[in-house]
Specification:
The protein has 434 residues and is an alpha/beta fold. The chain has one domain: Alkaline Phosphatase, subunit A (3-Layer(aba) Sandwich), CATH 3.40.720. The chain is 30% helix and 15% strand. The protein is built from twelve helices and 15 strands. The strands form four sheets. Strands 6-7-5-8-1-9-12-4-13 form a nine-stranded mixed beta sheet, with helices on both faces. The protein has a two-stranded antiparallel sheet with strand order 2-3. A hairpin with a 6-residue loop joins strand 2 and strand 3. The protein is globular. 49% of the residues are buried. The N terminus is likely disordered.
Length: 434
């Protein structure tokens, strides 16, 4: 099983701030900062301007590895091409796989990188390394992307959890995402897109009694942490406050408030429902929304599996991008659709494709990107990158740049240790920038 607790079919577990100003920043600030030794990462004027612009991220994670050959980089008629055709897109000369017609129709709104090369072919190590940007090993556990952005920019002043994760299965507060930043920067997981449990106050509990209970809880926590490190206590207080704030926004989880036809446009399958829920959270002002889909590890029966699963991405993804654009949200929202790697060009004896980090694709859209762009290419049979290739560290630099964060000069400070926020040997993928 992977670190999310979902079994892959391979069934194997291996399968503009200067350095001086950052180092001189005072530790403290948000809950958890004292415990980690982290100070103000961005100059207040810069951070304030970024927050004012309400920049947001939607991170769609297809866990297990979707095949680029059946989607964004088809090679029909070649030795490894498989049975599916390619189809034209809105971009002259650019073709996608026939399983993604809705996305092909909005290709002029998208930015596609076909030359990712990340080297790690195991789920157990590849999933966390990709989602942390694969920085150099400095003896600390780096935060996942959502936690990093929450820390670097600062949470919006809207009372909503800044980092929310919509996923199949159970929800809850996912503190491990935060790494060395401390549990305060974890994700609030929404199991199956549903709100946290106990979001509604029982009818038997009056508002007055609930307020008294809350005051007692705060006092008890204050007494408890007076003689202890408060890292986890602060995280608990934070998660409790976020859940309390969500009680005021129960409309976000009420399907009756959706416009007629939205559910049909997105699809009633899990990923369709979850991407529709993600749109609602973005519209409400959640800073970073992550949506996870499992079961993409197609070592056997790859083509039938993709015939069923890819349309469940194509339909809601195209609807989502169209809605974000129509509502003006795509101008300040960065959308990233990816896996931990792609699938092998070679088709195995079980009519499957195995893990292939050497040459695969990442689909993006929105904030800071050049729309209608396809960059990078692979060899004629899809086996390797043909020309420049990009590791995940470069993608993280690019994401930070789109959000207005100078990833070369901004650093974390962990107990006096300066740490780069992205791989220091890599840089922004310039050709995708607007």
């Amino acid at each position: 099983m992977n670190d999310t607790g979902h079994r892959h079919s391979c069934s194997s577990p291996e399968h503009d701030v200067s350095r001086r100003r950052v180092l001189g920043a005072l530790a403290g600030g948000a809950a958890g900062a004292t415990a980690t030794g982290l100070g103000q990462l961005l100059e207040p004027a810069i951070a304030s301007e970024i927050k004012k612009q309400q920049k947001q991220v939607l991170f769609i994670w297809l866990d297990g590895g979707m095949s680029q050959l059946e989607t964004w980089d088809p090679k029909p008629g070649t030795e490894f091409g498989g049975p599916f055709r390619s189809i034209p897109t809105r971009l002259p000369g650019v073709r996608f796989g026939e399983l993604v017609p809705a996305t092909a129709a909005i290709a002029d709104k998208l930015t596609l990188i076909r030359s990712m090369s990340t080297k790690d072919e195991n789920h157990s190590s590849g999933v966390p390394r990709i989602q942390r940007g694969d920085p150099k090993n400095r003896g600390v556990v780096y935060p996942f992307l959502g936690s990093a952005i929450t820390k670097l920019i600062g949470a919006p002043d809207n009372g909503l959890p800044p980092y929310m994760h919509i996923k199949p299965g159970r929800g809850g507060f996912m503190w491990k995402d935060a790494g060395f930043l401390g549990p305060r920067y974890g994700a609030l997981g929404l199991g199956d897109g549903k709100p946290p449990i106990h979001i509604r106050r029982p009818e038997s509990l009056s508002a007055k009694r609930a307020a008294v209970r809350d005051r007692l809880r705060i006092q008890a926590n204050s007494n408890f942490k007076a003689r202890r490190l408060d890292r986890f206590i602060s995280a608990y207080d934070y998660s409790y406050e976020m859940a309390r704030q969500l009680t005021k926004r129960q409309d976000l989880f009420d399907p009756s408030t959706l416009p007629a036809g939205d559910a049909e446009r997105y699809g009633t399958h899990p990923l369709g429902r979850h991407l529709l829920q993600a749109r609602r959270l973005l519209e409400a002002g959640v800073q970073f929304v992550k949506v996870t889909s499992y079961h993409w590890d197609t070592h056997g029966d790859n083509f039938n599996m993709h015939r069923v699963m890819v349309p469940q991405v194509d339909q809601p993804f195209a609807a989502l991008i169209t809605d974000l654009a129509d509502r003006g949200l795509l101008d300040h929202t960065l959308v990233v659709l990816m896996s931990e790697f792609g699938r092998t060009p070679k088709i195995n004896s079980r009519l499957g494709r195995d893990h292939w980090p050497e040459a695969w694709s990442v689909m993006m859209a929105g904030l800071g990107l050049k729309p209608g762009l396809v960059t990078g290419k692979t060899t004629a049979n899809g086996a390797f990158c043909d020309g420049a290739e990009h590791d995940i560290g470069s993608l993280f630099h690019t994401i930070f740049h789109c959000l207005g964060i100078d990833s070369k000069s901004t650093e974390y400070l962990n107990n006096g240790q300066p740490l780069p926020i992205a791989h220091d040997d890599m840089d922004v993928i310039r050709e995708v920038l607007a």
